[in-house]
Design brief:
Largest sheet: 5 strands, antiparallel
Distance between the termini: 92 Å
Number of strands: 5
Mean pLDDT: 83
Helix content: 25-40%
Strand content: 25-35%
Number of helices: 4
Order of helices and strands: HHHEEEHEE
Structural class: alpha+beta
Shape: elongated
Strand order of the largest sheet: 1-2-3-4-5
Radius of gyration: 27 Å
Amino acid sequence: MKKIILGLLVFGLTIPSIAQDVEQLAEVWIIATNYKYLSETDAEDEALPVELLQRKVATFDIKSSDIYDDEYDHYEVAFYIPEGKILAAYDKEGKVLRTVEKFKNIKLPVAVSKSIQKRFPGWSVTKDVYLVNYNDRSGTAKKCISLD
């Protein structure tokens, strides 16, 4: 009986090792093309619509777009949501070269709100325009304009 159990145990351990095929997979490289754009424009307390549209711009694949053609050096693509819009320029590799961004009546960043309260106690912003200009060479300029 011991021999049968020991034989089954050895047999049970050797069968799974024989049945497994080990296959070498090809290497995969993941390259974040627009990491610089995201790191330059991303703020920790950015309003959700701004962040979502900026991520859409960063992940847009120009090469799979209908407008892509190898002959052109750059492409301009517009992204719209009810709260704002972004006009982005891409090179033929899909890298964001520059953007012009405009958002209306969104939640202001905490630093801007604190600055307004410090400079103008008792005031509040009811209408605003948030502007962002990104350039891969010169960086990012952010501006918030109150319409009241």
